[in-house]
Amino acid sequence: MKSLCVYCGSNFNGDPVLRKAIEDLAETMASQNITLVFGGGSVGVMGIIADEILKHKGKATGVIPQFLMDKEVGHKGLTEMIVTENMHQRKQKMADLADGFVILPGGFGTLEELFEVLTWLQLGLHGKPIGVLNVNGFYDHLFKQMDVMVEHRFLKQTNRDLVFNETDATVLVSKMKSFKAAPDEVWFRDRNLT
């Protein structure tokens, strides 16, 4: 695993537990020569993870659309900055550059990115690991909702199990390194999820 795309918030709520988790993830990635691929911003959790990676002498590749660069939110000290025309190109480029995906706390955009790459994995469009760094129970309700989807037969347990849910960055990255994609590829043939 040479690179991880980190999806996270463009805001930071000041939580010291989250700050420590970001620092631990950055240290884990940098110590294993795993390049950070992220949204290229200098603000919020995005800015913190990039700063921490760089502090540990790691590599950080930002991917940002031109309209956000025009708003001067792009990080100025990255190893590499890729500017795209729009959000769709940004997301595709980030996914293409990454060997896996880590999700930190964030808002609508972070959830949208998580479920996009998770859906792509379920459809067999990629075989890359997806891991949630579930800081302080931030995503507990989201995982409960996934369980409700399984219970109501809108999601197969096999596909529900495709995403890692961990509280420790080192454990998460270790599990992601040994991931083998095994989505249920007959979802479109078998409409009965029992």
UniProtKB/TrEMBL annotation:
Catalytic activity: AMP + H2O = D-ribose 5-phosphate + adenine
Top EC class, one word: hydrolase
Protein keywords: Cytokinin biosynthesis, Hydrolase
TM region(s), chain numbering: none
Biological process annotations from GO: cytokinin biosynthetic process
GO-annotated molecular function: AMP nucleosidase activity
Record-listed E.C. numbers: 3.2.2.n1
InterPro entries, alphabetized: LOG, LOG_fam
Entry superkingdom: Bacteria
Signal peptide start-end: none
GO cellular component terms, semicolon-separated: cytosol
Family indicated by similarity: Belongs to the LOG family.
Protein name listed in UniProt: Cytokinin riboside 5'-monophosphate phosphoribohydrolase
